[in-house]
Amino acid sequence: MDLPWTLIWAVLALPLVGSIIQAVMGGRITRNGTDEAGKRLMGFLAVFFVAVPFVIAALLTLRLTNLSPADYPEPLEAFDWIALKSMRIPFELVIDPLSMTMTLIITGIGALIHLYATGYMAKEKDYARFFTYLNLFIAMMLILVLGNNLLMMFIGWEGVGLCSYLLIGFWYKDVANAKAANKAFIVNRIGDWGFCLGMFTLVAFLMANAGQAGIPADLRWFSYDVFLPNCVVLLQQNPGVATAIAIFFFIGAMGKSAQFPLYFWLPDAMAGPTPVSALIHAATMVTAGVFMLNRLHVLFELSPVAMAIVAGIGAFTALFAALIAFGQTDIKKVLAYSTVSQLGFMFIACGVGAFWVGIFHVITHAFFKALLFLGSGAVIASMNHEQDMRRYGNLGKYIKVTAFTMVIGWLAISGLPPLSGFFSKEAILGGALGNQVAVIGDVPVGVIAGWIALAVALLTAGYMTRLTFLTFFGTKEQWRLLPAHEDHHEAHHAEDNSHDHAVHGDHGEDVHGFFFSDKEMATRHAEHEHHHDLTPDHTPKEVYPSMWIPLVVLAVLSVAGGILLNNNHLLQHWLYPHGLTLIPHEAVDGHPKGWVGQYLLLMGIGAGVLGMVWGYFVYRNGLPKDEKDEDSWKPWRRSANAQFGYDSTIMDAGVTGGGMLANLAWWFDSKIVDGLVNGIAGFTGGLGRLFKASQSGYARSYALMMLFGGLAIVLYFVYVANSLGGKV
Amino acid sequence: MEGSNLLLPGYLSVGLFMFIVGVVGVIVRRNPIVIFMCIELMLNAVNLTFLTFARFRPSPALHDVADPQIYMSGQMMVVFVMAVAAAEVAVGLGIIMAIFRLRQNVDVDEMNLLRG
Amino acid sequence: MQMPLLSILVFLPAIAAILIGLIPQKKVQVVRMVALGASLLNFAVSLWILTKFNGATFHFQMEENCSWIPSLGISYKLGVDGVSIWLLVLTTFLSFISTWFSFYITKRVKAYMVSMLILQTAMLGVFCALDMVLFYTFFEASLIPMWLLISIWGGERRIYSGLKFFIYTFAGSIFMLVGMIALAYLHKEAVGTWSFSIVDIQKLVASGDLWSKFEYLQPWLFWAFAIAFLVKCPAFPFHTWLPDAHVEAPTAGSVILAGVLLKMGTYGFLRFVLPIFPDVLPQMVPYISVLAIIGIIYGAIVAAVQPDVKKLVAYSSVAHMGFVLIGIFSLTNDGIMGGAMQQLNHGISTGALFLLIGLLYERTHTRMFKDYGGLKAQMPIFAAIFLIVMLSSVGLPGTNGFIGEFLAMYGFFQAAYANMFGLNVMYAAVAGIGVVLAAVYLLWMFQKMFYGPITNPALLRLKDLKPWETVMAGSLVVLIFWGGLYPSTFLEPMEASLNATRMMAVNPANKRPVWANINHDIDSEGDLVEVASRTPDQVASYNPTTAVVRVLSPANYYFPPLVNSPQVQGRGGSGNVRTD
């Protein structure tokens, strides 16, 4: 039996419903995070509302696989969201291979990470709030990929940004987290500005050419199925506009997918809980840019320049982030830069016309990077929230499941055959080195990007080996040398020190009942007890099953995902059954000519192995001496640690410079603009003061003045009458 | 029925004399009651002038005025002035009474609250 | 004779104010309840008007007309169309909310409530008046109660701020009065009788007769009106009264000021400037747009460094009203709709922000950021509501703020892209930066108030919102989501009138819609059509799918106008399509 397509609405609605349930009832059911049974219920519901959509989406995808592209369902419209007489933007969903692939990743990986989070966040008081945001994120991400018009993509685009903001700042009592959240949102907004301009340019262009393109009968200017076919012919006549549109959209992708120069929010975003890093900042949200490029691939195909820019920026980002990763000591930061770097790989793929490979790498990366993040979360949890890799070592002995699965992730990301990362990376290298598309002038940007990608593959294996060995292997158990435990959540309870109510007393009687009485305050403080349940001797313990089960599943996928999807060009033919729209197949067929093609496979594997070997020799005994404390670091490592000064420069310019500019503007406003206003008022007042002396207050002097005034008028008239010759 | 034009300067002279007496009185006297009386004198001087001109205005036949109201406009004005004067005296005396109660003194030179 | 609904709406608060005058000063609770009851009743009346309103026609409905000073053509003339309908509902709603909030006022309650009610009458009068003298009367009458609210119940510098508010806006509108008298005189020059009715004047504008001999006056009169409304909006550089007035006004005053009084400016543009000065508009669009864009960027930048919450929101109003202005002055259907939507949104979300800040101020008696921090833990419900309202102000999709901002920006971009009115894409790109900056200062505000540890011990004893406060603020949150998820409720009743207003502004003479000609109307495509002869009563039941006789002017939403379209070339020359 075939499921009806309309069930896609359930896929979208269920996470939203889940989010609302968590928001409205979560606090009550978990009794503000004190009731364990309540938490288990809410945790179950959170997973349920993501897992069921996954099942539905899987069944719908199965139905879709049995159809030929011509029989794919029409977009499903629910209601008119914005309906004007000049245009119409309905709330509509599209079911096609691309949207369903993304849906499966989001709900599938999402469900696993939700399951993981039920364990990871078990000690959290704001349990329901966490899952409110997390479920809402799934819903927003689904709107992003399932929507059939640019505006719906934009709802999701900003919606996931919002969830990211809320989740990065989840532990809001630490101001650093709140600042990281702000940074993420604001940098993403810069990207959104590009997205909006791209969208506006595209539609305004079509409208300006409505005489030629025709006006869509149902006025759905922003819908993919309307504008994509329309713009091909028109934009071919206007390559400049095509380039502008593509670059604007790519600016949007740079923000969301953390590409240079807008990448610098992502490492800070690791301030959020680890499941968030895995779900949002590795597996799904940050790949939205790759999804967008695939969705709008026609626009990019129209402009070789834009494609070359995409590939070039992707390659530069990949290299830049990989280098920075060597200078990081925080396990999550390494993974964050690794994510930025891998996203660069995806953009190389898109830039050289191998759009499907971009999605392929999105999928495999979602598997192994989610695995690595969740694994790192398990490590962090077992190490009592210590994130510095220099304080790990030989953990493989104590947390075996975590270590085993993370090793698989390490091998996968290093590109060792036959793990999943190998296939997608080979496809990227092949596509880039063999492409003839991404060219500016005579410079084969795409091919250069391919060579850079090869180098980055080596670096990737290198820093990932460093991470793995420092954490799990080596003989030095650095954590045994640590002083008494530190709780990174300590900051949450910073307010406990103040029982002062002197200030409250200033307002006198509390007639409105605004404040807690002393008695109520006492009970509130009792609720604020800390929950230290750290093992005294620090011995790491394996995490809950709810946390390692997702690790195992993801490890299996990381092993088998690549070979399954690449088998017989399965994914390629599923996503692009007819190839690209404009670019001929030969230009992007992914087989470099000559010796490069011959040795491609060898070079790809060789780069990975070389990196791993280097890592093994440097880190096999644990932390080398010159990495211990920052004073002994080599200059290049210190520079890499500081992101080569990029982040601090931008932040200084943005925050300090912006603040100075704003203060200047404020000074201008209050002194010049308002000064002018008050100046005019003051001038009038001064004029008044000048004449006020004449108002002596003596009634008789007023009378005298009136007399003179009257006489003056009479005399004037007499004078006028005389000058007229006495004719009056 | 027209009065002799010879009388016109006489009436106007009386009006002017009354007005000048009023003006001088307002300026030189300090007692507000007397000042009020002088103001009344000035108003009545104006009234007299109005009535004089109303009485001695040129024949209406020369002007062919359609509106009959205009014949009586001078007298109307006098009635207005009297009404205004009455109102003014009522208010003014009230103020004087109030000031007297406040400071037991009504010398106008000492009432300078409105000084700028 | 049907019920004079609009007169009831306008004067019901004034009658209630008189009633309150009869209640003894000491019966504070009775005074409050009467004021609240009257506001609620008036809100119900406005909803009743909304249900009776027909959004398909652009004509004024529920018109009332009686002669006032016939020799000068001044009449008591009220009417409501799509431009004003939602502003009426917004006014009564926000008045109700702020009266409810005003239960916290304990100083001279009777005088306070009388001021609030008189203010309500004046504001409603502005949005209903179709006679310029009547409009001007209400426009200025609204200043007095607002001035009293600021100067008596305000903060420390209330006298200064109240005076500044009064004199600044008053001085601005003096020019408008001159302009109005000039228009009435031009009407006399054209047809022989004075008239202050905008329906009469627009009729002559539409046929081109009003300006035919006085073309040189048009720019002058345009600026006479524009300055009054720019001050009211307020647009850069006429905005400095706003931060002072907002900071010192009591909460209810700020809500009304941001929610309604500022809308009088943009309403004035839609009601007077677009229909009456079509010939100079294309030249003036760049000037107004530049002022609006400067306002967007400059307001956002200055907002970012304010130490005072209310001042931050006040400067954000300058930025937000800039979006309304660029929307309206894009002269595209999308842009004008966006501008009109954005003024409603701004009323709701900025009104809500001031309300929430007021709720906090009642508790802590401080507006300074340095006194706040970490409130999220202390007041989770308050924080959640504040977050939603803040996001609406940021313009997040799904909230009402997005719809207005998106449509306004998009409309402006269309005009800019087609190089209409001397604009180009750079203008739109720069205006777009305002959206980024909005996130900067609003997130900073939220972080300062709600995130981080609690540093001020006074905050530790704060309880969350009380139930009635939650309902009051929650009602605004409902509107925020309603506007964001199903904006058609708000857009539909406005579209015909706004579309007609746009055509009054951009169409050539004799192709413009005429309010006075009840056989003109808008069909379902948005074209200007002539319908079968009908009586004024039939206008209210107009159905665009029937009884169309002929198309007078196609809607022509496209810039540049379609080559093959029967449309006469739009005003302002044909834009060039960029091909580079």
Task: Spell out the blueprint of helices and strands.
The complex is a heterotrimer of chains A (728), B (116) and C (580).
Chain A: H1 8-29, H2 36-65, E1 76-83, E2 88-93, H3 97-120, H4 127-146, H5 150-168, H6 175-208, H7 210-213, H8 224-237, H9 239-256, H10 265-268, H11 274-283, H12 288-295, H13 297-301, H14 304-326, H15 331-351, H16 355-382, H17 400-414, H18 420-434, H19 445-472, H20 502-506, H21 518-527, H22 545-566, H23 570-575, H24 594-619, H25 635-641, H26 646-692, H27 699-723
Antiparallel strand pairs in A: 1-2
Helix pairs in contact in A: 1-2, 1-4, 2-3, 2-4, 3-4, 3-11, 3-16, 3-22, 4-5, 5-6, 6-9, 9-12, 9-14, 11-16, 12-16, 14-15, 14-19, 14-25, 15-16, 15-18, 15-19, 16-17, 16-18, 16-22, 17-19, 17-22, 18-19, 18-22, 18-24, 19-24
Chain B: H1 7-28, H2 32-56, H3 73-103
Helix pairs in contact in B: 1-2, 2-3
Chain C: H1 5-22, H2 28-52, E1 61-69, E2 74-80, H3 82-101, H4 109-128, H5 132-141, H6 143-153, H7 158-191, H8 198-207, H9 218-232, H10 241-248, H11 251-276, H12 281-303, H13 309-328, H14 333-364, H15 375-378, H16 380-394, H17 400-417, H18 425-450, H19 467-485, H20 488-506, E3 520-522, E4 528-531, H21 536-539, E5 548-553
Antiparallel strand pairs in C: 1-2, 3-4, 4-5
Order of helices and strands of chain C: HHEEHHHHHHHHHHHHHHHHHHEEHE
Strand content of chain C: 5-15%
Topology, number of strands of chain A? 2
Share of residues in helices of chain C: 55-70%
Discrete helix count of chain C: 21
Uncertain segments of chain A: 485-506, 529-536
Q: Specify the number of helices of chain A.
A: 27
Q: Which runs of chain C of at least 5 residues are low in confidence (pLDDT < 50)?
A: 563-580
| Backbone shape of chain C | globular
Strand line-up of the largest beta sheet of chain C: 3-4-5
Descriptive report:
The complex is a heterotrimer of chains A (728), B (116) and C (580). Chain A is mainly alpha-helical and 728 residues long. Chain A has 27 helices and two strands. In chain A, strand 1 (76-83) and strand 2 (88-93) form a beta hairpin. In chain A, helix 3 (97-120) packs antiparallel against helix 4 (127-146), helix 3 (97-120) runs parallel beside helix 16 and helix 4 runs antiparallel to helix 5 (150-168). Mean pLDDT of chain A is 87; it is low at 485-506 and 529-536. Chain B is an all-alpha fold. Chain B is elongated and about 55 Å long. Chain C is mainly α and 580 residues long. Chain C is globular, with a radius of gyration of 23 Å. The chains are: A mainly alpha (728), B mainly alpha (116), C mainly alpha (580).
